[in-house]
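User: Could you walk me through two proteins back to back? I'd like the raw sequence and the structure tokens for each, with a short line separating them so I can tell where one ends and the next begins.

Assistant: Of course. Protein one, sequence then structure:
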Amino acid sequence: MKTIFLAALLTLAAFPARAQNCSTPPTCASLGFIYTAAQCGSVGTKCPFDTSLYFCEHPNRNAAVGNYFFEDSTVSSSSYVNGKTAIGVVIKAPSSGNRGVVVHKNMYASSYYGADNYCRALTVRGIIGRWRLPTDSELSTLVGNSTLRSKLSTLGSTIKTGSDDWYWSCTNKDWSRIYLRRGTNVQEHTTKSDTTNRNYLCVGEF
């Protein structure tokens, strides 16, 4: 009995010391729970410390083509949401196993390598994946869809649709040549080393 009593006293004496060494618990954000239920939909997992925050591999599952995409990774059918800045327009909605695609609101002109390097280095917030040049298919969707062009115009970029208005893609014809597309949605190709300044936009996956 004395042995048991002594062991109990030693345990109680040691408890405060252990309590003082407890580390600060991680926050929801540090664990990746940074989205809302609306962004994750049915694929989200709630944070155990704050059930208003969720984690999901592909947020914004309810995003639709033509939605405005904001710097905090939210989407809206309106280009203006109080206190938020729209960074682009959704051109491909996410689907099962596939990310959505948003086109950045700014358009530039450069050689192929200049355009490719610029998009890869873009660090604007709000994108889960990386920024890149659009594929030939994505570019065709963009220049061929007047609604998407109008929405980008709302954010300050005018997609030119003339026969001399060319846009760089990231789709290879072969190892040294790249596809590009006119504003009239006609496909062509040129060498990657072509130094001609042509229009380009950057897209990101979410």
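----
Protein two, same layout:
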Amino acid sequence: MDKVLMKGNEALAEGAVRAGCRAYFGYPITPSSEIAEYMARKYPKIGGTFLQAESELAAINMVYGAAAAGARVMTASSGPGISLKQEGISFLAEAELPCVIVNISRGGPGLGGIQPAQSDYFQATRGGGHGDYHIMVLAPAGVQEMMDLAIEAFELADKYRIPVMIMAEGTLGQMMEPVVLREQVAEFYNKPWATTGCKNRKPNIINTLHLSPDVLEQRNVHLQNKYINIKLREKRAETYMTEDADIVVVAFGIMARVARKSIMEVRKQGVKVGLIRPITLWPFPDDVVEKVSDTAKIFLSLEISMGQMVEDIKLAVNGRRPVDFYGRIGITPNPEEVSKRLLMLAAEEGLR
């Protein structure tokens, strides 16, 4: 198949188009703005709806309206913008409205900087807004996956009636790689619940207000049962050389690529290192981590943050193995410094 050189943000946007997304509402923010620019150029040619909203709050509520009407709809932003969207995301989750939310993440807190980071992990995997809810979170590690997971995100959103977030570092959004263009999605989920007019049926009502305590509790129990089902069926991870590894690195996104290079170099020096790359950040692939903990001696969480994924690794390991951390913020650790850290860790643990 022919390959096309594309920027990560462009590949994600094209993936959404090929998934049948025909509505985009957003507000520009570095380093996600190319997604909006791509949709603004593309949609007039294919009959889609692009609207640059007056704010992030307006954009996420437009997503709510389009999703309620049954459309495949997407918005994109970066950390500060996603923070502004949190109330709307909570409403989307409660109303069970499928949509795709993209976070091309940068450093924080506050305005932070436009340098790439993974420090929105807590925001994404812990809900971020009010109430007992979850959204699914996918973490691509290459430009091809930016396209592929965009298509997959819409499928998962419709399958489970849940907002799905794609979280990628600013580096991945800006870098260019060859991409195989995927086929257009031909079939869509039937949405009998959507507010599409009621000439031949009773009106559909999409509502998130439940004044009766019993109804509110039943609603939350229903949502929790859905989340349990997703945890059972949709955990995804990639493993690399974990079979005999004494040290297991856990890294997602661009850091998993850095880790692979470091692992190859460190193995040449006699240290057995492997990698677990979570593809779903929620649900976190704790079963994979737990299985590897039978043979691994120690885990290393490798992040472009101050150590947020560490908590999920520790929960998965459940005290059976130590969990170390190495990370920077706003600066992506390079393979050489990661290799140095791994060799130091091996020496401390008596593994070389």
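The chain has a mean pLDDT of 96.

Let me know if you want the two compared in more detail.
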